[in-house]
C-alpha cells in the first residue's frame, strides 16, 4: 500500500501523543538520591530510638528534607555486622538531632537535588514542538498540491480533473448506437486537430455542445471517447462540484477552471450533470439559491461574456434540459444541442456487439434476437444485461453464455429477482386465470402488442407476470392502441370476475388499475381523444421543481373537471365491457391455457399463440 503524507500524518499524531504521556510517566525523573543508598530493611522510629539508647547506631544519613534516614547499626540482633536500615522520621522530632550529637553519632544531611523541574520543562516543550513540526509539514504539502495556503484556503480552486493527453481507454469505435452524435463530435475533434480546414472558409469553432438524453444512453461515454480521440488538454468536472455552502466559492471555481483552460487552449471542458448548476434562475421559495445563481452567472460570463474565450470547447451533459436556464442554451454558449435517445434495433445490435467482445458467448446465441427482444433498453441496460448473463453463467459453472442465461437476465432486469414457485392451490389457480386474462385479451385484440411470455414464477412484488413485446416505435400511439392497452390491462380483473365471481376479486389488479386510470386521463386531458374535444388541459410535467407553479395548476373550470371525470369513467367502463366479452367468449380456451400454465409455470409467446389458433382465429397485428 502506498503511504501518502496524509496517512503518515494520521499515524504519527497518535504516536506523538502516546509518546508524550510515556515521557511524562516514565522518563521524567523523580528524586533518585536514595537509590544510591538503598537499605536492606526497614525500622520503626521507636525501635530506632531503642537502638540509639543501646549504642548500636554508628552513623545516620538524613534525606528528603528530614523525612527519611538511613542508619548504620551493629548489634547481636543484627549478627554483629553493620547493616543499613531505613527509618521514616516523624514530621517534627527536634530532640533527635540533640540526642544524636550527645551520643557522638556520625550525622550527615543530604539536600534534595531538584532535577524534576528541568525534565518536566523539556517534556512539556517537546510535545508542542513535534506538533508544530507536523502541522508545518501538513501545510507545506497542502500548499504544493492545492496551489495556495493550505486546503482551508483552496475552496475557490477548481476540482476539475485535468489531463494533457486524456488516456481514457475509450475511442469512437467503442461508442455504438449513437451514430448521429458521433458524427457531430468527430467534426469537433477534426476542428481541434486541423482547424485550417474550417477557418479557410470562415468557420469558427463551436463554443459549446450540450448532450441531452435519458440516463444510460451514453453521454458520459461519448465525452470519454472525445477525450481519447482529441489529444488535447481535457478538463472533466461534475456540475455539483461547483456549488458549496460558502457564498462565492462556486463562482470562484468557475473562474479558476476557465483560467486554467485559457492557459492550455485549445482544450475541452466537460461538465457532467450541468443541471446541478445550470437550473433556471429565480425559482424556488425565496427566489432560489443565491450561491447557485452566482455560479451560473459566472459560468454564463465565462462562456460568452465581454472578455470571451478562444479555443475552449465546453461539452455538457444532462437529462433535464427542460429545467436549464434559457441564457445557457442560447447560441454563443451552447451552439449545438445533440439529442441522444434510446437506441433503435440497429443501435442496440451495435451496442451488444461492442459489449460482447470480452464475453464468452455460445455460437448458438444470436445478438440480433436479443436486440429485437429488448426495445426500450438503453446502452447501460444492454451492458448490464450481458454482465448479468455472465454472472449467471459463472454461478452455474458454465463455460459460455447461452440464451437461457440471457433470458433470465432480461426477466431479472425488467421484473426483479426470481422468487420461489407457488404451490398448487386456489391462490395459484386464481393468479393463473388473472395472467391468462391479460394474455388472451392482448392476443385477440388487433392493436395490442404480442404476448412474449406468461409465467407464474414470482418476480419482485408480482406473484405472476405477463410480458408483451413492445413495438419498435413508441413515439406515436393511436387512440385504438391506447384503448387496446387499457383493455389488456383490465383482462386480469375481468377474468377474476367471470371465473370466480365479483365477490372473489382480489387486490392483484391494483397496479393494473393505476395504469388504466393514468392512460384514460391522458387520453382526455393531454391527447384530446374524448368528446370534450381536441383540448390539452394538463401539462406533462407542470412542476419540474418547487416554485415555478405552486398550488393548483389546473387551467380549467370545475364544470370541465366534472366532464373529465365522466369521460375517464366512460372510457374505462367501455374497455372493461369489451374485455369481459372476450373472456366470456373464450372460456374454453382460458381453462385449457390455465391448466397448461399451472403444469409448466411458464408459457412462451409463440406456444401461447399456437394453442389459441386451435380454437379461434388470431387477428393480424398492425
UniProtKB/TrEMBL annotation:
SMART domains: AAA. Residues 205-344 form the AAA+ ATPase domain. Keywords: ATP-binding, Cell cycle, Cell division, Chloroplast, Hydrolase, Membrane, Metal-binding, Metalloprotease, Nucleotide-binding, Plastid, Protease, Thylakoid, Transmembrane, Transmembrane helix, Zinc. Zn(2+) binds at residues 434, 438, 512. It is a multi-pass membrane protein. It is found in: Membrane; Plastid, Chloroplast thylakoid membrane. InterPro entries: AAA+_ATPase, AAA_lid_3, ATPase_AAA_core, ATPase_AAA_CS, FtsH, P-loop_NTPase, Pept_M41_FtsH_extracell, Peptidase_M41. Binds 1 zinc ion per subunit. Homohexamer. Acts as a processive, ATP-dependent zinc metallopeptidase. This is ATP-dependent zinc metalloprotease FtsH. The gene is ftsH.
Amino acid at each position: 500500500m502506498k503511504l501518502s503524507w496524509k496517512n503518515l500524518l494520521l499515524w504519527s499524531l497518535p504516536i506523538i501523543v502516546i509518546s508524550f504521556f510515556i515521557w511524562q510517566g516514565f522518563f521524567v525523573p523523580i528524586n533518585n538520591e536514595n537509590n544510591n543508598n538503598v537499605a536492606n530493611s526497614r525500622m520503626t522510629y521507636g525501635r530506632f530510638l531503642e537502638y540509639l539508647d543501646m549504642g548500636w547506631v554508628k552513623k545516620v544519613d538524613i534525606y528528603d528534607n528530614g523525612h527519611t534516614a538511613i542508619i548504620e547499626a551493629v548489634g547481636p540482633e543484627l549478627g554483629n555486622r553493620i547493616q543499613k536500615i531505613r527509618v521514616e522520621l516523624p514530621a517534627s522530632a527536634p530532640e533527635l538531632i540533640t540526642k544524636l550529637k550527645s551520643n557522638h553519632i556520625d550525622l550527615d544531611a543530604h539536600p534534595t537535588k531538584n532535577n524534576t523541574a528541568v525534565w518536566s520543562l523539556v517534556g512539556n516543550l517537546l510535545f508542542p514542538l513535534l506538533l508544530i513540526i507536523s502541522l508545518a509539514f501538513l501545510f507545506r504539502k497542502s500548499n504544493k498540491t492545492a496551489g495556495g495556503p493550505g486546503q482551508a484556503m483552496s475552496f475557490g480552486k477548481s476540482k476539475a480533473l485535468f489531463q494533457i493527453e486524456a488516456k481514457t481507454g475509450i475511442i469512437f469505435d467503442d461508442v455504438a448506437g449513437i451514430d448521429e452524435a458521433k458524427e457531430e463530435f468527430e467534426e469537433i475533434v477534426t476542428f481541434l486537430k486541423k482547424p485550417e480546414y474550417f477557418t479557410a472558409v470562415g468557420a469558427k469553432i463551436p463554443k459549446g455542445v450540450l448532450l441531452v438524453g435519458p440516463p444510460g444512453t451514453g453521454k458520459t461515454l461519448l465525452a470519454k471517447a472525445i477525450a481519447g480521440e482529441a489529444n488535447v488538454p481535457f478538463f472533466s468536472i461534475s456540475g455539483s462540484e461547483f456549488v458549496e455552502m460558502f457564498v462565492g466559492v462556486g463562482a470562484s471555481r468557475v473562474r479558476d477552471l476557465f483560467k486554467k483552460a485559457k492557459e492550455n487552449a485549445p482544450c475541452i471542458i466537460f461538465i457532467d450533470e450541468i443541471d446541478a448548476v445550470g437550473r433556471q434562475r429565480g425559482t424556488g421559495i425565496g427566489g432560489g439559491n443565491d450561491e447557485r445563481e452566482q455560479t451560473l452567472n459566472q459560468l454564463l460570463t465565462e462562456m460568452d461574456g465581454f472578455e470571451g474565450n478562444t479555443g475552449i470547447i465546453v461539452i455538457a451533459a444532462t437529462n433535464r434540459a427542460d429545467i436549464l436556464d434559457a441564457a445557457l442554451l442560447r447560441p454563443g454558449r451552447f451552439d449545438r444541442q445533440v439529442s441522444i435517445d434510446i437506441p433503435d434495433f440497429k443501435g442496440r445490435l451495435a451496442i451488444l456487439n461492442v459489449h460482447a467482445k470480452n464475453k464468452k458467448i455460445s455460437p448458438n446465441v444470436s445478438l440480433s434476437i436479443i436486440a429485437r427482444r429488448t426495445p426500450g433498453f438503453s446502452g447501460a441496460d444492454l451492458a448490464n444485461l450481458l454482465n448479468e448473463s455472465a454472472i449467471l453463467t459463472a454461478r452455474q459453472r458454465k463455460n459460455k453464455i447461452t440464451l437461457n442465461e440471457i433470458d433470465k437476465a432480461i426477466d431479472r432486469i425488467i421484473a426483479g429477482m426470481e422468487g420461489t414457485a407457488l404451490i398448487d392451490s386456489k391462490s395459484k389457480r386464481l393468479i393463473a386465470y388473472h395472467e391468462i386474462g391479460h394474455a388472451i385479451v392482448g392476443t385477440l385484440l388487433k392493436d395490442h402488442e404480442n404476448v412474449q411470455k406468461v409465467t407464474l414464477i414470482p418476480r419482485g412484488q408480482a406473484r405472476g407476470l405477463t410480458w408483451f413485446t413492445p413495438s419498435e416505435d413508441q413515439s406515436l400511439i393511436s387512440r385504438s392502441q391506447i384503448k387496446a392497452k387499457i383493455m389488456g390491462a383490465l383482462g386480469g380483473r375481468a377474468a377474476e370476475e367471470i371465473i370466480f365471481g365479483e365477490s372473489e376479486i382480489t387486490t392483484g389488479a391494483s397496479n393494473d388499475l393505476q395504469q388504466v386510470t393514468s392512460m384514460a386521463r391522458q387520453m382526455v386531458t393531454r391527447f384530446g381523444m374524448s368528446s370534450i374535444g381536441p383540448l390539452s388541459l394538463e401539462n406533462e410535467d407542470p412542476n419540474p421543481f418547487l416554485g415555478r407553479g405552486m398550488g393548483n395548476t389546473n387551467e380549467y373550470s370545475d364544470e370541465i373537471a366534472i366532464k373529465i371525470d365522466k369521460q375517464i369513467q366512460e372510457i374505462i367502463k367501455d374497455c372493461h365491457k369489451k374485455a369481459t366479452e372476450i373472456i366470456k367468449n373464450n372460456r374454453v380456451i382460458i381453462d385449457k391455457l390455465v391448466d397448461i400454465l399451472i403444469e409448466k409455470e411458464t408459457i412462451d409467446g409463440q406456444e401461447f399463440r399456437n394453442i389459441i389458433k386451435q380454437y379461434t382465429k388470431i387477428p393480424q397485428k398492425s
